[in-house]
Amino acid sequence: MTAGLTDPAVILLWLVALTLGSLHLSGAAPWSRGRRSAEDVLDAHHDLPGWAICLSIVATETSTLTVISVPGIAYQQGMVFVGLGGGYLLGRLAVARFLLPLYMRGNLTSAYQYLALRFGRRMQRLASVTFLVTRLLAESVRLFASTIPICALLAARGMPLSPLSVLIGLTALTALYTAAGGLRAVVWSDAAQFLLYTFGAGLCAVLLWRQLTAEQVAAIGQSGLLSPFAVHAPVLTSPYAPLTALVGGAVLAMASHGADQLMVQRALAARSLRDAQRAMVGSAVVVTLLFGLLSLVGIFLWARHDGRSLASLGFVTPDGLFPRYIVDELPAGLSGLLVAGIISATMGSLSSALNAMTASTFSDLLGGAGSAGRVASGLVTAGWAVALIAVACAFSGSSHSALVFGFQIAGYSYGALLGAFLLGMVLRRATERVAMAAFFATVVGVALVIAFVRPGGVPVAFPWLVPVGVAISFLVGAPLTLFGKRG
After folding, report:
1. How far apart are CA 110 and CA 101, in angstroms?
2. 250, 418 in Cβ contact below 8 A?
3. How confident is the model at residue 190, as a pLDDT?
4. Residues 363, 129: contact at Cβ < 8 Å?
5. Which end of the chain is less enclosed by CB atoms within 10 A, N or C?
6. Which one-letter DSSP state was computed for residue 232?
7. In this structure, how many other beta carbons lie within 10 angstroms of the beta carbon of residue 136?
């Protein structure tokens, strides 16, 4: 096989193996004898191993943007994503301790079923619709943004494809094994995809380390890039300041992993509460290690380039750093494996979103698992896939930053969702009407903060949006509950 064909062959073989392997492990392959049921879509019969769920959670929260952006950020700011990981650990410890027991005790298939039990069906539907709309927008943005570096990498390895063809191809392939294999296929494929791009990043780190001179290694220790925080950064506007990373990151993690069906669904598929808790807490440790590994790649590249600025190296944005290294400096075969890993990062988050949106549609909007048969779930998954492609194409004409826009979408909803859960847990007399009023007030309040609050002309750092939202929920919900009690 010639060098020009090696990388395309590696990429295609991986995609075929991933699809067939996922279908086989889920029991949905043509040669499998298992019968599909509603539980395959919603909770995989609660018998998935904790370690696979842990890796699936990490694969769901990372994407192509994560894999290519973290090294570029580390080149300039060092190990700051590791500091964010510390906040994520604190938040997921709280989710494992307080929220997961609520879900597992009620044998729920959706996080929002708790809101139905606590407040009523209207609150459940409101939370589900909010999740579906924000997930549709956020995942479409992430999908569109991911196609750009993927197209560039494929073109450099002899596979020139348009962004639209990559968008449709990846979504169709992902929807195929997601619809056919349900949550079980998603979790196993996520685990395989995570292992691939983590192995690739680790291999790059080893190769770069072996190329460094003693002087370059010494420069790393003197540079301050190994610090996990941007110590002197402004607290309100920098996501990497210590207080922002730890406190803001912790509350953000409580919302994203405790009040978002995308993550909660995976934990609910565990065999026991203990397994679910271990998977949740373990995912914080694993994602922090992944951040550290990707950051080392960026720091080693900084040392190898003797600390030169990215602009002097010809980069307009930091996101071009790692892809150029993959294309220009890795040998054929290994380069294709890294490209396959980056594609897998997008497919992992996409498959999780499709399955969670399908499960929430049945559990929260259509009245339960009884209607989630093989054909019905496949049609709903296909419908959400088409919607993702349509919204991603619509966003392609926007001039806004995809990454910033994605963070803002999460900011609108996470504070309101987490606020609703905490209101139900803390204010025992809060009613459905109070919860819904606080929910709407929070969405409006966070929107105003995003639009108008700019300390020093800089937007508020995204980790603070969720704590602000939770505060608004209680500032509205507590007085309404108190006045309602007196009335």
Report:
1. 13
2. no
3. 94
4. no
5. C
6. T
7. 19
| CA pair distance 449, 430, nearest whole angstrom | 26
| Torsions phi, psi for 454 (to 5 deg) | -140, 85
Q: Which amino acid is at 310?
A: L
Helix axes 80-94, 249-258, angle to 10 degrees: 50
Q: What is the pLDDT of residue 456?
A: 87
In Å, how far are 1, 238, 392 from 87, measured between CA atoms? 48, 14, 31
| Contact present, 383 and 51 (Cβ < 8 Å) | no
Task: Convert the pLDDT of each residue in 38-67 to its tens digit.
Answer: 556 666 567 899 999 999 999 999 988 889
The rounded percent of the chain whose pLDDT value lies above 90 is 66
Q: Give residue for tokens 């992992």.
A: 348
C-alpha span between 442 and 193 (Å, rounded): 36
For residues 377 and 383, give the distance between their C-alpha atoms in angstroms, rounded to a whole number: 10
How many C-beta atoms lie closer than 10 Å to residue 31's C-beta?
7
414 conformational bin, left if phi > 0, alpha if psi -120 to 50, beta if neither: alpha
Which tens digits make up the pLDDT trace of 210-260? Answer: 999 999 999 999 999 999 999 889 999 999 999 999 999 999 999 999 999
CA distance 106 to 87: 28
Q: Which residues contact 90 (CB under 8 A, 6 or more apart)?
A: 246, 249, 250, 253
DSSP string for 244-259: IIIIIHHHHHHHHHHS
Give this prediction's pTM: 0.93
Which 3 state secondary structure label does DSSP give 48? strand
Tell me what pLDDT residue 487 has. 44
- Ranges under pLDDT 70 in the chain: 1-4, 28-45, 368-373, 396-408, 485-487
